[in-house]
UniProtKB/TrEMBL annotation:
Metal-binding in keyword set: yes
GO BP: base-excision repair
Phylogenetic lineage: Bacteria, Pseudomonadati, Pseudomonadota, Betaproteobacteria, Burkholderiales
Regions annotated as coiled coil: none
One Gene Ontology MF term: metal ion binding
Protein name: DNA-3-methyladenine glycosylase I
Originating species: Herbaspirillum aquaticum
Keyword terms of this UniProt record: Metal-binding, Zinc
UniProt xrefs under Gene3D superfamilies: Hypothetical protein, domain 2
Residues annotated as binding Zn(2+): 8, 22, 180, 184
InterPro entries, sorted: Adenine_glyco, DNA-3mA_glycosylase, DNA_glycosylase
Length: 189
C-alpha cells in the first residue's frame, strides 16, 4: 500500500510542474539573487491571473527575459519591448512588460545600495523564515504588516506590481514565509 502525500489544497495535482513547485520551492528559503528577482517579476505578472498560468510560462519567461539578467533587462529598448509583446510564451501586457524593465533598473539600484534582494528581504526577518501554523488554507492571510511595509518600500524605490498581496505571495514563494498548512508534508521542513 502506497501512502499519498498530503499537500496544501491550492496545488493542482494534475500538473506536475505545480506539484514540483509546491514540493521544492514554495516556502523554501531562497538566497539566490537571480531567482529572487525572477520571482518578484513573475508574481507581478500573475496579477489578475492564476499562479498556475504564470508558472506554466516560466521557461518561456526565462528565455524571453535573458534568464532574468537584470543588467540586460534594464537596457531593453522599444524594439525588444515590441518583440516581448509579440511573444505568446509570456503574458503580453504592456504595463507588465514595462514594469519588468523598470524593476530591473530599480533592482540594480537596490543591489548597489543594500546588496540585493537577498540582503533586503532576509534583513526584514533577521535571517530566519517566518513559519506559520495554519490548520487550513482559509486561515492564511492575503497580506500582513510585513508585506504592507515591503510593498511600500519597494514602490518608493520604483518597483511596479508590488502591492501588498503580490508581495505576500512573493514572500511565500521565496520562503521568507512558510505557509504550508500543518498537515502538508512540506510544513515541517
Amino acid at each position: 500500500m502506497t501512502q499519498t502525500l498530503v499537500r496544501c489544497g491550492w496545488v493542482n495535482l494534475a500538473n506536475p510542474r505545480y506539484v514540483q513547485y509546491h514540493d521544492h520551492e514554495w516556502g523554501v528559503p531562497c538566497h539566490d539573487e537571480r531567482r529572487l528577482f525572477e520571482m518578484l517579476n513573475l508574481e507581478g505578472a500573475q496579477a489578475g491571473l492564476s499562479w498556475e498560468t504564470v508558472l506554466n510560462k516560466r521557461d518561456s519567461y526565462r528565455e524571453a527575459f535573458d534568464d532574468w539578467d537584470a543588467e540586460k533587462i534594464a537596457r531593453y529598448d522599444e524594439r525588444k519591448v515590441a518583440q516581448l509583446l509579440n511573444n505568446p510564451g509570456i503574458v503580453r501586457n504592456r504595463l507588465k512588460v514595462a514594469a519588468t524593465i523598470g524593476n530591473a533598473r530599480a533592482y540594480l539600484q537596490l543591489r548597489e545600495e543594500v546588496g540585493g534582494l537577498d540582503a533586503y528581504l532576509w534583513g526584514k526577518v533577521d535571517g530566519q523564515p517566518i513559519v506559520n501554523r495554519w490548520a487550513s488554507l482559509a486561515d492564511c492571510p492575503a497580506k500582513t504588516p510585513l508585506s504592507d511595509a515591503i510593498s511600500k518600500e519597494l514602490a518608493k524605490r520604483g518597483f511596479k506590481f508590488v502591492g501588498s498581496t503580490i508581495i505576500y505571495a512573493y514572500l511565500q514563494g521565496v520562503g521568507v514565509i512558510n505557509d504550508h498548512v500543518l498537515d502538508c508534508h512540506c510544513h515541517g521542513r
